[in-house]
Amino acid sequence: MDSWPHQGCESVRDGRNRGAVLPTPRPSGAPARNPFSVVSLSPAVLALGIEGTAHTIGVGIVDEQCRVRANVYDMVRPEKGGIHPREAANHHAELAAPMIRKALDTAGISADDLDVVTFSQGPGLGPCLRTVATAARALALSLDVPLVGVNHCVSHLEIGRGLFPECRDPVLLYVSGGNTQVIAYARGRYRVFGETLDIGLGNMLDKFGREVGLPFPGGPRLEKLALEGKELLPLPYSVKGMDVAFSGMLTAALALHRRGERLEDIAFSIQEVAFAMLTEVTERAMAHVGKDEVLLGGGVARNQRLQAMVGRMAEDRGARMFVPPGELCIDNGAMIAWTGLLMHRSGVRMALEDTLVDQRFRTDQVEVTWR
Ligand code: ATP
Ligand code: FE2
Known about the structure:
- The protein has 371 residues and is an alpha/beta fold.
- It has helices at 85-107, 126-143, 152-163, 201-211, 218-226, 247-258, 263-289, 304-317, 326-329, 333-345; strands at 20-21, 46-51, 56-63, 68-75, 116-122, 147-151, 171-175, 180-186, 189-195, 239-240, 243-244, 293-297, 320-322, 348-349.
- The strands form four sheets. The protein has a five-stranded mixed beta sheet with strand order 4-3-2-5-6, with helices on both faces. Strands 9-8-7-12-13 form a five-stranded mixed beta sheet, with helices on both faces. The protein has a two-stranded antiparallel ribbon with strand order 1-14.
- The longest helix has 27 residues, at 263-289.
- The structure holds adenosine-5'-triphosphate and fe (ii) ion.
């Protein structure tokens, strides 16, 4: 993750949109039909999604009611140092076919039952994205079914909406290794209202963990240590407008460690300060866009203390918080399958040349045709 060109989804402003959206008018809720489409006109009922933006390759199978029929994944765990993109890509290449088979077996279906194949088109590490896109293209071509490329960040939000029917229009606090963003729907697109100006919070936790000798990933280890923490040590609280920054906190936390402060207290302090920053910008986004639902996503969203702080903020505002189960918070194929299914059902069709990967695929590049 260290070698991501940019930690957010918002680094290139070329404004290009993904996929062709069919112009056919449709009654609300009904799937769009394309009279010129060469692909099947039946609505998608089973989608397979392949996720592989970074360290995890995941394959999920989801039906049209967002029932997760399979969600299998495997993560590269470097013995030391950060993730090497080429090594992660080799890992994904080795595991793509067996994981697809495993997902089909778990779902109890054959590949011929699939209506659409979807994959994570970006943002992420180039070699990983290309590997997964190649696997998805090969599968779609061999089955002769449509192929849909999906924005990874958008899929973290859509899986929450799919899982919780009462969560209709949330602000998403998306906190993972590479990404830290506050996202909400406005005027036909998902917009990033705030994000990290330097590193993703998960990367910061993992880097700190690595420096102090904890195994990867550091986030969950620090959560355990923090439970034993008592003293709130001084760390920089960096909120700039709607954005946050974590590299100063990393430097300061490492200095505290060198000074001999207890690791439990440092872990506790990192969590209290970092999560307070995120809670503040999430609340501000909710107030700004007038939304009363907050959804958590990304690996760091598994953290109980973060959930407690955001949950308390939501309660105080009379809002509701939704947290997907852990395996759907982290990078996973099911969220890609579900978002691709929504896109396909709304009429998005991609020719092979539309399925090129984009390392810097921005959240607001996606025209939201399905809501
Ligand atoms: P993305 O590609 O979206 O940036 P990612 O590749 O980092 O995501 P995720 O699986 O979403 O992958 O998140 C992994 C991150 O979540 C790691 O940085 C890990 O330390 C962190 N994490 C996982 N569990 C916890 C936890 N309980 N507390 C804090 N951090 C956690
Ligand atoms: Fe992610």
